[in-house]
Every structure is written in C-alpha cells, then in structure tokens.
Amino acid sequence: MKKIVSLLAILFCITLSAQTFTLEKFAVFNKLGMADFKKEMKSLNYKFYDKTEGLGFVLAEYESADYQSKIGKFEYEDKSEDRIEFEFKSKKEYEQYLKIIKEAGYKETGKGKIITREPYVDYYNKKEHIRLILPKAGETNPYTIIVFK
C-alpha cells in the first residue's frame, strides 16, 4: 500500500512540475497518429517548435509554454521505430522518472552513447522499451526520455 501511495505522489508531483507527462501518457501519445498528436499538443498549450522530414520518417516537435521541456513524435513509414521523445532540464525530474521506471518493473538492459555522444541507459519491461539519455559530460541539461512504441 505504501508503494502505491508513494508512486501516486510521485506521479502527481511530476505532473505538476513543468506540465510533465506520465509513462502512461507517453504510451497514449505513441498510439496517436501525427494529426491527433498535433491536436493534443495544442490542447496542452505546447507550441510548435520544429518539423523534420527524413528518409522514411517525420518528426514533429513542440515546446512547453515555459520553455522548460520539449516533446517530439517520430513517425516512420513502416511504423517500426515510432516513438515519443521528451526533453527536460531538471535532474530532479530525471530522478523521478528513473524511480517510476524501476518501480514499474523495468530492468536496465544496456548502456552506451548516442551519435551525439550523450550517454544513455536502456530499460525494458517485457517488450516495452524506454531509453533515458543524460547530458554530455560537463553539462547539466538536457535530460531526455524516449518511449518506444
């Protein structure tokens, strides 16, 4: 019972700080098509930041009204790598996400560096995959959580 209460308290705190999202909300965003994702971001008062089109994918990014976080949806032609990427500036928020991920049963499965040299840690819970990306060495932000579809 204590774990449930503390998990709910953490979820509540995260939701209040900088209009952050729960893991469940990221999963919902992953299921949305791009048009519905854009509508959802507008309803949450996120402002359009950028659109990138690459070979086989589209990325739409939105920024929070306070400029403290950014969320993007990658949509691939074959849908195999669709994902939500959420970038934020607070180490405290990162630690809250990490705690929630572990309490939700995710296990650390690998570490490495992405192409731009930031370190990452992968977590899996059955077939669900989350990647936490830390700032580059010597920097204090951004932190990123990627929730794969």
Percentage of residues in strands: 35-45%
How does the helix and strand content classify structurally? alpha+beta
Helix content: 25-40%
Rg from alpha-carbon coordinates: 15 Å
Mean pLDDT: 88
The major beta sheet can be summarized as:
8 strands, antiparallel
Count up the helices: 4
Number of strands: 8
Distance between the termini: 30 Å
What does the model show?
By secondary structure, the protein is of the alpha+beta class. Helices cover 32% and strands 37% of the residues. The protein has four helices and eight strands, in the order H-H-H-E-E-E-E-H-E-E-E-E. It has an eight-stranded antiparallel beta sheet with strand order 1-2-3-4-8-7-6-5, with helices on one face. 19% of the residues are buried. The N terminus is likely disordered.
In short:
The chain has 149 residues and is an alpha+beta fold. The protein is 32% helix and 37% strand. The protein is globular.
Write the layout of secondary structure elements.
Elements: H1 2-16, H2 23-31, H3 34-43, E1 47-54, E2 57-63, E3 69-76, E4 83-88, H4 91-103, E5 107-113, E6 119-125, E7 128-133, E8 143-148
Antiparallel strand pairs: 1-2, 2-3, 3-4, 4-8, 5-6, 6-7, 7-8
Helix pairs in contact: 1-4
